Amino acid sequence: MFFGTSSSIRFPFLPGSMGTTSLMADMDVKRETQLLPQTVGIIPLGYTIPALLDAACDRSPNATAFNQWTGTNWTSLSNQTFRETVESVALGLLDLGLRAGDRVALLLHSDLSFAIADMGCLLANLVTVPIDLTQTLENIIYVIQHSGSRALIVSTLDLLQQIGPYLGQTAELQQIIVVDLPTGCLLLPSLSVGITAQTATPEPDTPAPPLHCFPECTGLDLHQCLHLTYPDWRISLPADVQICALTQIQAQGEIEKSAATLADLRSGLSPHDLATIIYIPGPAGELLGVMLSHENLTGNAMAAFAELPDLAWGAAEVALSFLPLNHVFARHMLYGHIYYGHSLYFSQPNWVFKHLAEVKPTILTVVPLLLEKIYSQILKRGKKLKVWKRLVFGWSLWLARHYQLGQKPHVIYAGLLKLADWLVLSQWRSPFGGRLKYLLCGGAALGAELANVLTAAGIPILQGYGLTQAGGVVSFNRGVANRAGTVGLPIAGVEVKIADDGEILVRSPYMMSGYDQHPEATKQDIDAQGWLHTGDLGRITSGGLLQITGLKKPLFKLSTGKYIAPLPIENRLKQSTFVAEAIIVGADRKFSAVLIFPNTTALQQLARELGLNLSGNALLQHPCIVGLYRALVESVNCHLPYWAIVKRFQLIHTELRLENGLPISHQQLDRQQVLQCFAQEIDNLFREGSSNNTATAIEIASTHSEEFDHQEIACPVYPVTPCPVFAQSLDIRQEGSEGKSERARG
Predict the structure, then answer these.
(1) ∠ at Cα 137 (133, 138), nearest 5°?
(2) The AMP-dependent synthetase/ligase domain covers which part of the protein (predicted)?
């Protein structure tokens, strides 16, 4: 009986059973409650970001505060050495002619070089503009141009090579700074004020180095520039843009460094100064620059870290960082770790499991996708066990699934769970290194079952909720205020209330000042009383915790933490006469998909032209019709980053009528009602085990679902316009990684 999997089996000692306090009672909504109780605590205002580093160096010196993976081992910097490096970089940047308030774009991998460049800019009172490396080239150029960035710091020549031909569109750009240069490549200062790129001068009687760095602009377009391999570098750059290496900037800063110049740096900073502009997609797909001050970021990080139970100062806490630092979530964690003087290890997604075993962190920050992958692997391995071990595994999993966060377990259940831990569950902790105190999950919603199961296995998950516009964290679970399916209590200084229509409103001193150069968008999102309209729907439980229930804005996140703006994709699909309506789905999923409601009149006309005597579902299942819609979806995938492309679609034979939540005439679509009405069809889109072969595609089509393949079928050829290179994502290969980044469009 213990090996059963039916959730209807109930025992007095199981959470939620008779004789215990049910969590569901706690989850009932206090419908009359509109304002979430504020957290009592010190609101830490008045700090600049470099001041956090200064405080850590004085209070918690740490010889291994910053650790970078080189591909073979770790190199470490103390926080004092890091501060000295940052000071030199700041002075070197100012020596280039940059001035307080100038914007500097960061096209950097999420590693130690990002932390140095970011902090160096901030100490020089420059405004950093971090760029998502997974964006399309056109969006990257837009961010540099729209922000008015005067300088660009880029990780590698390979990245610069890809964007170089388009930098002529960035009118304000004057300086390019390269972090990692290949061996033998030097950028030497010229006699002029600027810095010119040239090759190293060889010693007499020695052969010239084979690498040619930045020759005179040859006018090559990006098709020619892309994928040229070492040593054949050819980079097309605007003639008026000067270029140098980050090491040169640092060396020049060392020359300028003195007690007086360092004092001037710090005295010129104010907590209210603009620190960063982070670009996020708006509801219509447009990029909006969120403006955050030093105080917005420091106050939010300090308030959130202060709420972590038993958090230690200094090297006692070890953190592994692999999330993209252009996102506010990872930046928030970076500044918090710096302030507390923790040992921070910069990893990469391809190395994260290896590094978890090596570093054995006490703090790990993740998005739900990583936990979903780990859980999926656990379940797959359990199915492969021999009979007896599989039964024990199933019983342990069954117990873990009955665990409920925040509820004291019955003594019998606790004893059984301890036995299950000894037999099975303890093994689930090994992928995390075995020392984990805080597993902080954000960026997207985490499933309640997964939160309960992993917590039952001794993995301390704390889920949170936040927005870039709110300065980072709004609320998170901790201590006794920890329930699966909720995002806990707000941090000190944050007010949360639920509007009449269910939208979550937030107000705090950590909020953005607005969107850069978009006053109308700012007015739409921040009302006259200073409340930020988040676009998320939520409620307050009877236990006083915030729970996310849905979306108001047509904007959602994947389980990777990436934003998807459905409207522009849907509108492009609806330009076809064969599409009556299209709904992009994928909130909290691994990828996005689309429900397509065909225009039956146009489709029947096409069927007659093709000689197909079919209608309804039978017509939608025909390979020629499936091929038509596949071509349409592949066409709209152009101009989307690789992570945002629509990977599956579902053809639905349904008349447009209000009871299905669909528009008729000019009435507005009720997106939430569509998601509810077609929940089963949406779940089918994300089923595991689908493949790209034709047989499987036809089988999925019979349930109105299709996964892309490029198998030729005996039907008319539906042309797909080739996607131009500038509309594709960067190739972000990074040395030392296990494999290359995904660049394929399908």
Answers:
(1) 130
(2) 54-515
The predicted-structure confidence for 676-705, as pLDDT tens digits, reads as follows 888 888 998 988 754 333 222 322 333 333
Count CB atoms within 10 A of the CB of residue 566: 24
pLDDT-derived band at 219 (thresholds 50, 70, 90) equals very low
Contacts of 612 (CB under 8 A, 6+ apart): 619, 622, 624, 625
Q: What confidence tens digit (pLDDT) does each residue in 641-673 have? A: 888 899 999 999 886 565 555 544 345 667 777
Could you tell me what percent of the chain has a pLDDT over 70? 81
**Three-state secondary-structure class, residue 632:** helix
Phi, psi for residue 292 in degrees, rounded to 5: -125, 135
Strands in 37-162 per DSSP E: 66-69, 74-77, 103-107, 127-130, 151-156
Residue 14 exposure: Cα atoms within 13 Å on the Cβ side: 13
The answer to whether residues 495 and 506 touch, using CB atoms and an 8 Å cutoff, is yes
Residue 11 backbone phi and psi in degrees, to 5: -130, 150
Pairing status of strand 74-77 against strand 461-467: unpaired
Q: What pTM does this model have?
A: 0.82
Can you read off the two tokens belonging to residue 253?
Answer: 């800063």
**385-424 pLDDT tens trace:** 899 999 999 999 999 999 988 788 888 989 999 999 999 9
Compute CA distances 345 → 320, 352, 459, whole Å.
5, 11, 20
DSSP string, 541-558: BTTS-EEEEEESSS-EE-
Q: Is residue 623 left, alpha or beta, with left meaning phi > 0 and alpha meaning psi from -120 to 50?
A: alpha
CA–CA gap between residue 475 and residue 466 (Å, rounded): 7
| Tokens, residue 547 | 């729970």
Locate 73 and state its tokens: 């081992």
Q: Please give the structure tokens belonging to residue 237.
A: 């750059």
**Residue 216 amino acid letter:** E
> For the residues of 127-155, what is the DSSP string, one character each?
EEEE--TTSBHHHHHHHHHHHT-SEEEEE
* Mean pLDDT confidence for 477-493: 90
Q: Cα Rg for the chain, rounded, in angstroms? A: 27
Those residues with Cβ within 8 angstroms of residue 113's Cβ, 6 or more apart along the chain or in another chain: 155, 179, 180, 246
